[in-house]
Amino acid sequence: MRHPRQALRTTAVGAACAALLAVTSLGPALATPQRGPAAVTSQAGSAHVRFTDIPGSGGITLKGNVFTPRDADGSRRYPVIVLPTSWAMPQLEYLAQARQLADSGYVVVSYTSRGFWLSGGKIETAGPPDIADASKVIDWALAHTPADPARIGMAGISYGAGISLLASGFDKRIKAVVAMSGWADLIEAIYGDRTQHRQAAELLGGLGALTGRPGEELQGILKDFLGSNLAKEKEMLAWGAKRSPATYLKDINAGGAAIMLGNAWGDTVFPPDQYAKFYERLTGPKRLELRPGDHATAEGTGLFGLPNDVWTNAHRWFDHHLKGTDNGIDREQPVQLKSRTGGGYESYPDWAAVERTRRTLPLEGGRSIRAGVDSGANGGTALLSNVLDQFLKLPPMVSVPLLPRTFAAVWQSDRYDAVQRVRGSARLHTTLTSDQESGTVVAYLYDVGPLGVGKLVSHAPYTFHGKAPGRPFGVDLKLLATSYDVPAGHRLALVVDTVDPLYIEHNPDGARLGFSSPKDDPSALSIPVRD
């Protein structure tokens, strides 16, 4: 007898199949199974689709689907694109895009990542078995479809993006990658400045348990991570490094794959800064696109076949690098940014050019706050606040004059006479003194209007351990990269408190924190601006 949760997954997959097949106009009812009981075929518009089992590494079976061009008759080969699914998503995720790609002359193979839904194995979180699976799927595609071994690409959203980047460092057959809303450095993404991203980790852990089979290693890592088990910190860091494309940068560069990275300014799972840093270190053909939104929301509409800038450029990227199409994408400036506050795209030759001009906001005078109480300033709610910002221009807001100074340190600029176009990562430098050896602070940058209402521009957490109580120490903190226009007549405000629902804080009860600006080491906020 099947386990109830397995039966639930099977039922859910069946229902989702029916819905998505209708949405993407895959045609009539699925035909009689071919090539054995695990494969079914149908016709999607002009392209053919087949749902099939694909052998993974270690003897497991991956559930997949294959789209082939309508004119495929065995007489020619086509470029192939492999699409690993996102975390907790089944093989149906990319149906609309796979059909469009097949209609334009690609073989497209998508598969449910191991450990999720009906694919075999356990969740390895982009570990070595996942990388080996990607190569096994490529092997299968070359043996069972009219795929061209000289023109292989990989793409994916979130988890699929991470697996695609990692695979490009281990399988030199991969010539082009499009990685959307993924990670390059898993440690920086969810443990930046030694602060656990609580909501992101709980979300991933919960979805993994609901839709898949987390392995013992993952379960242990999540338990130690969310439980703040610092005794296991080195093990957690090693686990994260093993799953970070940045660790294998030399191999990725040696492979020479053309890599396009796309992310959202407000990604609460994998913030954009680690992507920008990784982009700068790539030596092959590359492109970086950043837009308003949260995790996977910038490219989300494309999964339903709707017009979408991310997917449009993904198609152009593959057309150029796998088909040799002269569509001009190689002549465009490779860094493309879209502001959260409106307007079209801005182009830059590299990430350094984004932050080339900076203005300094002095942080004069001392501030002292008590820890452990949420002042009201916060980064919002994962997968909600930044979607409101994306579609309604409503970022998290707070009344800056009403913030309790007992729990929040506040500095404000003068009113600006002209628009301040913030581009990139603001950098905070200050001197901190705590009466405890551990603690957490969260810095927020607000756009403050005439009535004192602050709209969140950026933020970042910082955690310290092992400090001598009462002894000052320097803090350097990069706020998350953004693109935001502060209107003329507004101010910028820096707010620092100690509690944010997005993160796990490490402040003992009753802790007090002081901020100072010594003459020989003044505190300041460096703000990147576009003239």
From TrEMBL:
InterPro entries: AB_hydrolase_fold, FrsA_esterase, Galactose-bd-like_sf, Xaa-Pro-like_dom, Xaa-Pro_dipept_C. SMART domains: PepX_C. Residues 510-531 are annotated as: Disordered. Residues 315-525 form the Xaa-Pro dipeptidyl-peptidase C-terminal domain. The keyword Hydrolase applies. The keyword Hydrolase applies. Residues 1-31 form the signal peptide. Keywords: Hydrolase, Signal. It comes from the Bacteria. Belongs to the AB hydrolase superfamily. This is Acyl esterase.
